[in-house]
């Protein structure tokens, strides 16, 4: 019998070549309408998974929970069952004025301020996406008319440390566009395991706005943030179509 991975609770026979990686399991409900022949696969801890077709291309969506540690487990176990392309579709806080709610950040490198990527490899190893998959994302976002910014994100492990504001100001001063918690771990584990990865982040907090207030209004269906989420889902799905067409 095919080996079932201990955390995602999936085996090789259930895999698709491509996977969307949202943090939040609830985001799968908003991905499913874009797919046909949708199957619910598994739900263990933070790892919920579905599979379907997007324009005939088999795609999974697997939630990774909050933080690099659980995201790295997802990348590991998905690569072991044969997934070759993974795109994180997450939310982020902007670190630059002018990046508005619902704008997408297409990450071309991540500051490794998380613990998980450091457990894997020395911090001199770069947290970068697959170049071809990033280009596929950039072209897809442009074709869809999404508001995008291409640049660096900072992946961190906690919202609530005492120096949070100073740390954000420091990285903003270095030209970093936004903060999330998983991109660095996804890029580093993907790079080490030979998986093509990318990360698209939907802005849910503008720079220097009140964090908890905006995260609380994130589920408002009418909001720019929800349109941003729809755009990141479609951008990633279209990028997988391009990746599939190029045979990579
Ligand atoms: O919206 P998701 O993908 O969960 O991503 C962001 O939201 C969570 C924090 O609120 C962290 O996981 C962060 O990276
Ligand atoms: O500011 C934010 C918002 C979402 N996710 C983060 O990691 N930071």
Which labels suit this protein?
248 residues, alpha/beta, 9 strands, 35% helix, globular, binds 1-O-phosphono-alpha-D-ribofuranose, binds uracil, Nucleoside_phosphorylase_sf
Q: What does this 3D model show about the protein?
A:
By secondary structure, the chain is of the alpha/beta class. The chain has a single domain, classed as Rossmann fold. Helix content is 35%, strand content 28%. The protein contains 8 helices and 9 strands. The protein has helices spanning 27-31, 68-80, 116-120, 131-144, 164-173, 183-193, 211-216, 224-245; strands at 18-21, 36-44, 47-54, 57-62, 85-94, 104-113, 148-156, 178-180, 196-205. It has a 5-stranded mixed barrel with strand order 5-8-7-6-9, surrounded by 4 helices. β2 and β3 form a beta hairpin. α2 runs parallel beside α6 (183-193) and α4 (131-144) crosses α8. The longest helix is centred in the C-terminal third of the chain and has 22 residues, at 224-245. It is globular, with a radius of gyration of 17 Å. The model has no long low-confidence stretch (mean pLDDT 95). Bound molecules: 1-O-phosphono-alpha-D-ribofuranose and uracil.
Itemize the secondary structure elements and their pairings.
Elements: E1 18-21, H1 27-31, E2 36-44, E3 47-54, E4 57-62, H2 68-80, E5 85-94, E6 104-113, H3 116-120, H4 131-144, E7 148-156, H5 164-173, E8 178-180, H6 183-193, E9 196-205, H7 211-216, H8 224-245
Parallel strand pairs: 1-4, 1-5, 5-9, 6-7, 7-8
Antiparallel strand pairs: 2-3, 3-4, 5-8, 6-9
Helix pairs in contact: 2-6, 4-8
The protein binds 1-O-phosphono-alpha-D-ribofuranose and uracil.
GO cellular component, one term: cytosol
Enzyme class: transferase
InterPro entries: Nucleoside_phosphorylase_CS (IPR018016), Nucleoside_phosphorylase_d (IPR000845), Nucleoside_phosphorylase_sf (IPR035994)
